Amino acid sequence: MLHRVEELTPLRVWDELASKPDGALVDVRTRAEWMYVGLPDVAKLGKKLIMIEWRLFPSMAVNSEFATELRNCLGETIPSDLYFICRSGARSREAAECFMQTKKFEMGQTRCVNVTEGFEGDLDHLGRRGRINGWKYSGLSWSQT
Question: Using omega within 30 degrees of 0 as the cis cutoff, is the peptide bond preceding 58 cis?
């Protein structure tokens, strides 16, 4: 069976996280982004955010241990739905594809979803993020550390 990464907007992801008891959000941005830009806050949905860098700051080299680290965070039971988010949706798609392709475990029926638009959204005509789409722009819960 061929698995593929699905694409959903932040609002759709929020709705699905609210309705799926074992769904989980995986933030694959860098530690610097988590610290200085903020984090999606899914606590009011009864969820805990999973934070694992897909690309390591400052070199931005791919984290070769990403799939193993994520598998370890998930524990014995892999959720039926995993949602991957980054700044704009590019790195999170790469991370979701990597996780789906790993041979380190049996995926079963896990659905991997990329959060299109990401946390900060696409660039506007002035080259700025957060003004046309994305998690924050959509008014979804987030926090600053």
Answer: yes
